[in-house]
Amino acid sequence: MFLSLLVYLCCGAVAGVLAGLLGVGGGIVIVPMLVAIFPGQGVPPEYVQQMALGTSLASIMITSISSARAHNARGAVHWDIFRNITPGILVGTFVGGLVATHMPTMFLKIFFICFLFVVSAQMLSNYRPPASRDMPGALGTAGVGGVIGLVSSFVGIGGGTLSVPFMSFCNVPLHHAVGTSAAIGFPIAVAGTLGYIIGGWGRPDLPALSLGFVNLWALLGLAAASYLTAPLGAKLSHALPTAKLKRGFAVFLILVALKMLWGIL
């Protein structure tokens, strides 16, 4: 058991550094790692993807608090946007997590693979939508939040890949969009985790220390390590050629997606 905890600590450390260094959500790294590890930890094949997604979202609850506090200290969190988008986030992510627990594992894997390809293409092109309008009203922002939450629950991320471009499109300065997205990650993680816990409750053959589709042992290692290493990644981002590293990481994500696709085929 302690050997598996060490593995989860290593995964969390890598995810934390990459999240801080490249500005990508830790979930996009954590999910493929857990998908590779969980079969050897007694997770039934039909539950591997759901367990990876639920555990990834649960770990984001911890890391998003640390990140949001750091951004808020620099005045980079727009709490008015957070307030307007959160109702949609909560509904979309909870419903999405609950629905995902009843979906075939194959569908969730294919959805995640497609998401990796989209994120890789965005990172390679460095495309950002032109800032051409203001934020919509409370109802419109909540509606967008519902979509962001739904997609995030299917791929186990904190939503930054979607919320940052949306806010940038609405004339929110980039570093403020990143800071606000960090805060938005918390309600995404809470609602999504709750959906995966309820949806996985009482399922047979889940390994010990599982709360629905959240593996508590993995959560401990992931959250503890990523919480500590994310600041290190943030410091490295100021000393290393981040743009080149992002392109390299995008290629790595494509290889991960191809490996997962090959496993399905």
Automatic annotation (TrEMBL):
It is found in: Cell membrane; Membrane. It is a multi-pass membrane protein. The chain crosses the membrane at residues 5-38, 50-69, 81-100, 106-125, 137-157, 177-199, 206-228, 248-264. The keyword Transmembrane applies. InterPro entries: TM_pro_TauE-like (IPR002781). It comes from the Bacteria. It holds the Pfam family TauE. One of its GO terms (cellular component) is plasma membrane. Keywords: Cell membrane, Membrane, Transmembrane, Transmembrane helix. Belongs to the 4-toluene sulfonate uptake permease (TSUP) (TC 2.A.102) family. This is Probable membrane transporter protein. It comes from Desulfovibrio fairfieldensis.
